[in-house]
Amino acid sequence: MFRILADRLRRTVLVSLVVSAVGIPVQILGGWDYPVVPPGMLILLVAGAAALLPVRWAPAISLVAGGFILVGFFVVGDAANMLGSQNALVTVGKWVQMVALVVGVVAAVGSLAKPPVPLGRDRTRPA
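^ SPW repeat-containing protein, sequence as received from the core. Prediction below:
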């Protein structure tokens, strides 16, 4: 577990997807209509936690779930609400959610693109 947390990209995926999930309650405080338990928030929290799984492909789960939320954001036309068409809390919540989501998706891609480190080797010491 601690070895996974030492990976800067996976830590970025975790933190950014959790911050993205926090954007949803901010929108709710601003009066945006969500179900009692927002599915987007649950998806983001689980996707962030998936980055902690001790397998090489774990960030792929975060990438797929984050991509799902990101595509849904544009499909339903929420991009217009980022320009201040709603009150300040809704606008801030949308920005927090989307900026953190994009950072998390990019970090997940980066984590998947980097070469794996063989077990028993330390990244800081040359081979």
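The mean pLDDT is 86.
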